[in-house]
């Protein structure tokens, strides 16, 4: 089925490119984004979309020229006259995150911009040590009248790398400087279920263009609110929606003669980094979770309790890299895919959440030099057509985020 899907995209490339161009006009695309993608062999789906992506340090060095060109093009066309860029960092004890910040700063600097790194909440300027790229200087941002500045540095553009799940974005709300990605995409406001609603509506148009079933590039989902994992509030409602979602998946499996067992992930609708994502095969199984599992599902970035959950169709991954099951993560600047990596986890199987402590990354298959090869990559089942498909899905993801933002404002 994947071969047919890839063929459909190739056959309709001109039509699809025209559609992308038309849909991108007059819309606020995020400066960057990343997308977790799973290929089950019969469908390929973006399972998570990140508007403030970390992990640029895991992207192949060979992708940097593409990232620099995309950065120049995006900023010059959408924010003409930009010379100074403020990169907003989170404050964390994770040294790998600062490898990411240094990587983004490097891309922006090599694109021709003067770049400073700042943060919203910190006592004074400081140096944070990265894992492998040395220290990065971070200053505290301040507001002077309606402008954000950092020690006399007044940026023409602000690029947050902070999803605002544990930071107060209010200092940025009345700034006259452009901000991309828009702070309304922060997890204090954004919801996963809303993104899926917007994306599925958009996928309907794409499916019509390609003459395919939307389910082949999309997923069923349900949503539950006013949830409390401590006292099991609305657990029965979640269980009912799990069974409803699984019933819909079963119908599709029957239609396509798929022998897999359907399942769903239940996860917080306003969280990131794959936190609290647990697979379930029935509503009854969910109702039997113990206190330890409830505590795990209640955990979100910033320490906030989870009160809304997304029930999302489970998509197994059939990709194999270095003889391990893997899922692809694609990075975009604007709506241009610039590279990515494959995520694996030695202790997880093809149906589990791979975005967990202990994961490993392989970026070489996304390098331009690898994409020039005709044969299937060694120790993997990855092909050029698969990479092109993942880039296509990521481009759709950038539009979905932009359309989501229009409704959030």
Description of the molecule:
33% of the residues lie in helices and 21% in strands. The protein has 409 residues and is α+β, with helices and mostly antiparallel strands. It has three domains: 2-61 and 317-408, no CATH class; 80-179, Rossmann fold (3-Layer(aba) Sandwich), CATH 3.40.50.11280; 220-313, Dna Ligase, domain 1, CATH 3.30.1490. Strands 1, 2, 14, 15, 16 and 17 form a six-stranded antiparallel beta sheet that branches. Strand 7 (142-144) and strand 8 form a beta hairpin. The longest helix is centred in the last third of the chain and has 25 residues, at 384-408. The protein starts with a helix and ends with a helix.
Please name the defining characteristics of this protein:
409 residues; alpha+beta; Rossmann fold; Dna Ligase, domain 1; 3 domains; 10 helices; 17 strands; globular
